[in-house]
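Onboarding guide, step 5: your first structure request.
Type a short instruction followed by the sequence, for example:

Predict the 3D structure of this protein.
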Amino acid sequence: MKRIRHSCIQIRVILAAAVIWALSGAVLPAAAKEEDVAALYREYCGRLEAVESRADISANGFEIVESQIFPIELGGYGEVSMIPAFDRRYSRLALFFVREDGTVLYKTDQLETNNRVLGQMKQPNKAIAAVSFQDLNGDGRMDIVLITSCVNESGAYAHKPYKVGDVLFQDRTGTGFYRDYRIADKINRFGMNKGAESITAFVRDGCSTEFLYTATTLDELLDNQFQIITEQCYFRTFGKLGRLQVVPGIYRIASYDVFMIYLVNEQGNILSCLQPMGDYDNLYALKGINCRDIDGDGLKDIVVLARYSYADDAGALVVVSDYSIYYQRTNGFSVDRDIRNYYQCGDEDTMEALVEKARAYWGWKSGND
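The system replies with structure tokens like these:
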């Protein structure tokens, strides 16, 4: 039986990324010089290509994720084992498809999660969050839904875990897989990477959260089954922004309630979109939305207090209370990034207590309004 060899990404892709970085005016550190990156990548590809049996995986510097080994039916080979493994040196994820006798029939590292930091070998992959096998495109062959957990070491979102979703479609011969980068892009850009269910709802069933981020009118939201939380929906006057309707609501995709807040003018046009849910998986309960001046500039700000749920590393459901503050500015709203680092709320916090603590941060005296 002819083995299918993995074809590594051409080195010129990484070289091009390094050149772009250089042209941007940034100074490349020694480890990221294009010749060094190319050499490191050749070394990595050599180790990946050298894996011809299950025993070779660990021997070539890859650490097998034993808890995520699953059987899968490949049309051209029958049942094989899918073995995921992280490269110990660069944290890149590779998938190996292995026969019962240990022979590697197919392998790939062409995954969305290996492209988080372009032009760099080391990637922020930490763990596999979910794996699911389903026929997503109706061709009768099992495809793979893959979600990884990543943590950046630097930058604005350093040390904050986030998920990366991906789909691998089994090819017509049943001897390999292919990806559509456009699908992966939408899964991750529009927050449909929370779980395998939401990815399946998007790829197989055609459900999508994209409209939540691209809609320009309230009617467009409603036409796409956006459900307004009516008890927290009202009009307020926001300085020079005028009289706006605060429109909180959810869109349900699979078992997830995606929570958004829109500020809509009297003509029904969306002026601002707030995303207080952040990286949480699901809105569990909305505790309140309050429009009051928080930072003392005389303009109404927006405070959102809610309970959210997410799955922890063990897959258990976790429910937490959290809040967001949006400061009114002349051209819209900006999210708070200071108070949240100073004060973390708990389940016992009320909206009034939260407003008082937020105002105290800005120097308000208790009882002043």
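Each response can be followed by summary notes, for example: DSSP finds nine helices and 18 strands in the chain.
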